[in-house]
Amino acid sequence: MEKACIIGVGHTKFGILKEKGLVDLLAEASLMAMEDSNTGQEDFDAVYVGAMSSDALNNISGIASALVDKINMIPAAADHIKNGPASGSSAIKAGFQAIASGMADLVLVVGGEKMTHVTTPGFITSTVATITHPEAERIHGISLPAFAGLLTRTYLQKYNAKLEWISDIAIKNHENGALNPYAHFQRTIHDFMESAMKKGKGQWNNVHEFLKDDSVNPIIAAPLRLFHICPISDGAAAVVLCKEKLAKKYSDTPILISGIGQATDTHVVHEREDVTVLNALRLCSQQAYKMAHKTPEDIDVAELHDAFEILEAVQSEDIGFFKKGEGAKAAHEGLTKIGGMIPINPSGGLKARGHPLGATGVAQVVELVWQLRGEAGKRQVEGATTGITCNFGGFGNNILSILVERM
Amino acid sequence: MEKACIIGVGHTKFGILKEKGLVDLLAEASLMAMEDSNTGQEDFDAVYVGAMSSDALNNISGIASALVDKINMIPAAADHIKNGPASGSSAIKAGFQAIASGMADLVLVVGGEKMTHVTTPGFITSTVATITHPEAERIHGISLPAFAGLLTRTYLQKYNAKLEWISDIAIKNHENGALNPYAHFQRTIHDFMESAMKKGKGQWNNVHEFLKDDSVNPIIAAPLRLFHICPISDGAAAVVLCKEKLAKKYSDTPILISGIGQATDTHVVHEREDVTVLNALRLCSQQAYKMAHKTPEDIDVAELHDAFEILEAVQSEDIGFFKKGEGAKAAHEGLTKIGGMIPINPSGGLKARGHPLGATGVAQVVELVWQLRGEAGKRQVEGATTGITCNFGGFGNNILSILVERM
Q1: Which residue of B has its CA nearest to A281?
Q2: Closest partner residue to B98 among A80, A97, A268, by Cβ?
């Protein structure tokens, strides 16, 4: 198999981007990735767009066709790949396979979502909840935050962990996000606290005290509070993929996609023997490690799917960095900070970079590319040569891991 | 490149299937294809689902994850591929690339749509219209039937053709559909006419007279009438793909996918120099012919995308069977009937088999598999060894052609 390389990346600012539509965001990230890769429109064979809810949120169903027109890439093939909030990773996998199959030499993959214009109360939550099981789950009103609350309770009890450790993950990710010019929140939680104090909203001695105050950090799905949960964001991210043997033609610093894994688990969460174990992640990360001839010990930096901060703890275990039940404690002890044993989410993760659903899987890979190229600025993980991602397409029922390395 | 073979096919009845939901239909076709291919759940590496409007029409966004759970195929990878009414063909292309890349040995591809439960007036038409350009087209109220009406007027005028010849395509496709036990309409237009006469709705001397009567065949988008347009249908179709070298392990009659092409054209229809020329089809069919080392003269049978009967005429030209402007006349002269020079839509096409959007591209390939295996019953094209499809992902702006042949 000839693997694919990443020769260029693009990333819009994530956040509340009022003036731009979904196709505008996809185009912006795409053109950045093309500029970064020294490619021209006529070089491309295919485009893969990852977006979760463009039908529901943007009333557009032909986004891949619309994008190739907007960026003058006609007659390149164009498809839209959907896998919930892992649509971006599934789009990268589709692009990788297009190249590895020999059907394409150069492929653009772009993920994006435009969400913050939606003002109908509950519409975003109910739209995202369309990835849950219609009869066994959704009909009872369960949503993704509810699952995350239940998982947090179970995890804390089973592994004798503390909610403060989950808060530590949020604190770390906001510290990282404060160093990321593309992040939705470029502020530490300490910054949020000081700002609240200045506005006279209260007085707190430290961020943990701030995070326990209902008036500034309300409970959303007990025990999870607002700052344990990622925001709703707009944004897009793109990568240009090419055949390994053509990579040096376009880039001095191509990054190899050396492993990709994808696995599913029971659609219904309650059917799993142990909700704290992500079988799909264990399987898909093993596939990625095996394909790349790597082990978890080889990984220098990881981008995990902390849509809820409990998930980063659980994923850091099932992807092989820590023993089961020790992920939250490891974060508390600082092992996952930049400069720690295994830096996780130097980008700020979904918590601080933001989570425009379909963009996230691509943005994770873009961050790893910047890290492996040594272009991550103040959040650089020194000497990183190998990175891995975890991207959730449902509540643990469809997960991808992408392993990238310096060539 | 190791190409992929089709070792099994499945096809639900198309039509108004009241009792079944979308995932039920996908599962039914999938299980049929698995039985037909002598495969078990544990054999599969990946599943690709093609569906256009499951978010809007069925309020489900994780259909691929839901399907693998329902058919016990966990932990196989699962993705949802969207390309408007060509979602099924794009899913086949994705499955082909998964195999040709070496990432998968055995892949299930299933396309489906559940539409007829929607009773809100205009909702289906406006949902389908989300593939048109939001600012240049949709905002002005244009829909797909409107485009087809305009194309028909232009074609008839430019090539000195007659509307009766377009009607002849519908007549042929209903004759073929009457021989297809899976078709939505298993009745000839002559049957419809006789039934209307029995009910006292009128008296007509022949079907052309019947088709010109506003009371039984009203104008939908002038000059197109009801019988020039495909129905809204429910249904699903599936194929099991495997590596060429494993095919004989599962099937005595594997069918090779020897060529696949996909190309885009301007998203906005009015930007094309000549609306009667399908540039994307010319390109994608040339890609498929080239990949398969075939020419249009090698094709024994074709399944084209007659969502509107004018499209079959135009496509039969741009795919290389007839000179520009001669497709409608060729149909009128019987060249595209079963037994004719190049039989088109022996299945009944979208007109009579029905058009559950995401199912269509897969159903086209399933029909060709039956034809090449010699299993098409009364609608068999004798001695067919090679077939090709055309599937539309928008109004000419994203088209796929899949070329299959007997091994």
Answers
A1: B75
A2: A97
Check residue A121 and give its pLDDT. 85
Q: Is residue A68 part of a domain?
A: yes
CATH code for the domain of B14? 3.40.47.10
Q: What pLDDT was estimated at residue B138?
A: 87
In which domain, by residue range, is B98 found?
Answer: 4-119+232-250
d(CA A31, CA A13) in angstroms, rounded, equals: 14
Residue B370 pLDDT grade (very low, low, confident, very high; cuts 50, 70, 90): very high
Q: Is the ipTM of this complex over 0.85?
A: yes
Give the closest residue to A240 by CA, choosing from A28, A393, A44, A402.
A44
Tell me which DSSP letter residue B15 carries: B
Question: What residues are paired with B113 via a beta bridge?
Answer: B235
Nearest-by-Cβ selection for A101 from B69, B83, B97: B97
Rounded-to-integer distance, Cα A136 and Cα A394, Å: 15
Are B96 and B4 contacting, i.e. CB atoms less than 8 angstroms apart?
A: yes
A44 in any annotated domain: yes
**Do the domain assignments include residue A203?**
no
Cα gap A393→A52, rounded to integer Å: 9
pLDDT single digits (tens) A58-113: 999 999 999 999 999 999 999 999 999 999 999 999 999 999 999 999 999 999 99
Instruction: Please tell me which residue of chain A has the smallest CA distance to B280.
Output: A75
User: If we measure between CA atoms, which residue out of B395, B401, B216 comes closest to residue B291?
Assistant: B401
Task: Give the SS3 label for residue B46.
Answer: strand
In the beta sheet, which residues pair with residue B389? B303
Length of chain A counted residue by residue: 407
pLDDT tens for A294-326 read: 999 999 999 999 999 999 999 999 999 999 999
